[in-house]
Amino acid sequence: xxxxxxxxxxxxxxxxxxxxxxxxxxxxxxxxxxxxxxxxxxxxxxxxxxxxxxxxxxxxxxxxxxxxxxxxxxxxxxxxxxxxxxxxxxxxxxxxxxxxxxxxxxxxxxxxxxxxxxxxxxxxxxxxxxxxxxxxxxxxxxxxxxxxxxxxxxxxxxxxxxxxxxxxxxxxxxxxxxxxxxxxxxxxxxxxxxxxxxxxxxxxxxxxxxxxxxxxxxxxxxxxxxxxxxxxxxxxxxxxxxxxxxxxxxxxxxxxxxxxxxxxxxxxxxxxxxxxxxxxxxxxxxxxxxxxxxxxxxxxxxxxxxxxxxxxxxxxxxxxxxxxxxxxxxxxxxxxxxxxxxxxxxxxxxxxxxxxxxxxxxxxxxxxxxxxxxx
Length: 375
Hints:
This protein is of the alpha+beta class. It has helices at residues 7-19, 25-32, 40-48, 67-79, 86-100, 103-114, 215-251, 263-291, 297-326, 336-349, 354-362, and strands spanning 120-123, 139-141, 144-153, 160-167, 170-176, 182-188, 194-204, 206-207, 253-254, 257-258. The strands form 3 sheets. The chain has a 4-stranded mixed beta sheet. Strands 2-3-7-6 form a 4-stranded antiparallel beta sheet, with no helix packed on it. Helix 5 runs antiparallel to helix 6 (103-114), helix 5 (86-100) runs antiparallel to helix 7 and helix 7 (215-251) runs antiparallel to helix 8.
């Protein structure tokens, strides 16, 4: 596999980096202190650049790009710890509409999302279901939904929900607008971003699609794509934490010499670099699996699980070491590494933490043949 970016991908990365360059720890604290928890002006700029419609077809108002281009945007968002709900609204909710919607629904909804006129939220997780995508806590009958979805990422600001619900024929996807029968309770999460508890009590719902698409299969693939996008966001976070740490070690002095002169600290920084590069390799591979149209659904799901497990391990390692190697300043709200570690921790728990990925990967061990040891 060739992981080298072409000229258009490099230009896209540089353009997104330039757009987001104004973010720093202080600016982020100001934004996440108030609802909706992200800069709606920046959301409009992302739309103007075509980033909100990046993965959608040109017929639906998008740019027709693929997972690699999405990964570049996610990494740049992670690099500056930007709180915009890009993965949540574009990759997750928008991805479900693109995968299961009718042509009319895709043109209307994805066109509005691409233009920055609409914020979507995917309501697919339930408080008693952990990360079970087939949990039956929300039911649909006669075009009405009843039950609770939580956490719904970016749900407090959503103009439209994409909801998974159990019907008499199995799992199905629905479109629900905030209003009568929909109670939305928003709150801040540990990293300062926003989620919501969304309770449906006879809420009017429109079926997403015409019933010809397997809703559970579509949901699993979109969630796998979202996991991989979150992994790329984590790569950006880890790279920034690594750079801040090495810069600190080469400038901060103790006992008349810079900290990088102490061998033990240099070794710890080298271990951080090893974790980062191993993670970059695995996550890039997962994106290539997703981009390959010949990949079976099971292959995409497994690649996403492997990438997220590595991100869970490396994110904890790099985040904790970044704080430790900064000493007392690493614990303060004024410094960025704490925000990065909080976001890495939140991403670890989104759509299944490392232990959850391990549990499912272990189940596949029996699929592999036994290799006899060499004499």
